[in-house]
Fold this sequence. Notes:
Layout: E1 2-7, H1 17-29, E2 34-40, H2 50-53, E3 57-59, E4 62-63, H3 66-79
Parallel strand pairs: 1-2, 2-3, 2-4
Amino acid sequence: MNILYLAHRIPYPPNKGDKIRSYNEIKYLAGKHTIDLVCLADDPADLQYEEALQKYCRQVPISDDLKKKVVSLVNKTRESKDLIE
């Protein structure tokens, strides 16, 4: 199965509660599934960990500006007249 895993912060290094949980979930799921990870970087220095996560994930787009893009997309969606309520 293909799984899109969304995380509010990069799950590496696994040194804090939410990072530990996310990292171990990805590691476990990658044993039997294909994982695409999308996550945010709290700090531009976190971008260096992309390679470490590629061991378990097919794709690892890490962005320090993704949050702005997501907020923009949500706002555009809210303004759309094509929404099904």
